[in-house]
Amino acid sequence: MKVIIFCGLLLLTVLACNSEKKIQTTALNGATPILYKGFQLKPGDILFQDSDCGPFCESIEKVTFGFQGSKFSHVGMLIPKGKAEFVVIEAVTKGVVETSLDSFFHRSFDEMNRSKVVVGRLKTEHKHLIPKAVDFSKSKLGLAYDDVFDISNDKYYCSELIYDAFKYSNNNEPIFQLQQMTYKDPETDRIFPIWENYFKALNVSIPEGELGLNPGGMSISPYIEIVHFYGRPQGFKGQVNE
Question: What pLDDT is stored for residue 83 in this prediction?
Fold first, then answer.
């Protein structure tokens, strides 16, 4: 089944890029949690987000599906910073950056004013992968955003950063599945106009059929489990935690 990469094209999001020296992996062994908005988050948690971004998101929602139908357009990972602080590492238009929890969680809200963020967590048998994945992602701070969604270059879009981090930590074996990308409207079998204009502005060919991945597909990986809903993403068919 074809899918489309998005990564939250948080196209107008402006985030500060903060470099941080490499952490010691031993600090993660205990998976010290942090209570945030009533739920215990842990280092290595994968934060799936339903972003509100107009036509881009609308085109994504027609062709991508996540956990129980959820429409995810962005993803980041919770990492520790220093002794008591936690941040989200993510790839956005400014590049690979660290973002405060408050900034990340205040981007989009459901009809009950809850953050449209869903927490994925590696299953117990795979949690040993987290320390190296965190180290890998932190080593990429400051690298440019991959605006052409090329899985083989030295830039990163949101899904690609998390994909490569856990592939590295798993002895170069991926835990998320690459699939063929599509930028076509399933109703017309034509490229969405928003994507035609986007790639035309970049003066590159539309990477139709190239391999990549998106947050929705990542959310159904057998390596992780969905452990908490802060809010209801579009398309979700289940019950949100109260």
Answer: 77
